[in-house]
Write a structure and sequence with these properties.
This protein is mainly α. The chain has one domain. Helix content is about 65%, strand content about 5%. The chain has nine helices and four strands. A hairpin with a 7-residue loop joins strand 3 and strand 4. Helix 1 runs antiparallel to helix 2, helix 2 packs across helix 5 and helix 5 runs antiparallel to helix 6. The two termini are about 15 Å apart.
Length: about 180
């Protein structure tokens, strides 16, 4: 849900225009940044299944215990808040960063890989739509993106080109994952 997570930063920017874009993006993507780091270190796993056919996203074998399971979210939300506070010393920005990180996890529950309380042996959480219904997952992500773009642009005088670009990126780009 890459574009869906980034789209939530648009809503946050509307709520706190002075908050730096980079901080919004990091907060919205923090648990994916953690996951890719942990995959690179060999702690977590995200590899294509060579025996499966279809879009790679739907056939990927994932194990994301430390970045995406429920219990570690307390840590990641805390890291997000601590980073925002250290950078800005602004309590509102701290809360917004923490909410963006929490929203990431909630969005993944609706349209992402399956998550657990803590590890594959614990209780399963979420829809696991990336494996079970990729078009529904990407449709949810696109709808979330369009809603966030609408919220961000309403009442502002963005040019037609900017609006088309934003709606294209957040409303259409997710469907590219049906191909790759």
């Amino acid at each position: 849900m890459i574009t869906g997570h980034l789209a939530t930063a648009l809503v946050a920017k509307r709520a706190a225009p002075a908050m730096p874009w980079w901080l919004l993006a990091v907060a919205a993507m923090l648990i994916d940044i953690a996951m890719f780091t942990l995959v690179g270190l060999g702690v977590e796993q995200m590899v294509p299944n060579p025996e499966a056919s279809g879009p790679t996203l739907a056939t990927t074998v994932v194990e994301m215990t430390y970045s995406h399971d429920l219990i570690p979210q307390v840590f990641w939300i805390g890291v997000s808040g601590a980073l925002a506070y250290l950078v800005t010393r602004n309590r509102q920005f701290t809360l917004i960063a923490m909410m963006l990180t929490g929203a990431h996890w909630l969005g993944d529950l609706v349209a992402g890989y399956g998550h657990f309380v803590f590890g594959p042996e614990s209780h399963a959480l979420g829809t696991d739509w990336y494996h079970l219904n990729l078009p529904a997952a990407l449709g949810f992500e696109a709808a979330l993106g369009v809603a966030c773009v609408y919220w961000f642009t309403r009442g502002h005088s963005f040019s037609l080109g900017v609006q088309v670009a934003l709606y294209g990126v957040f409303g259409l780009l997710p469907f590219a994952f049906l191909i790759i």
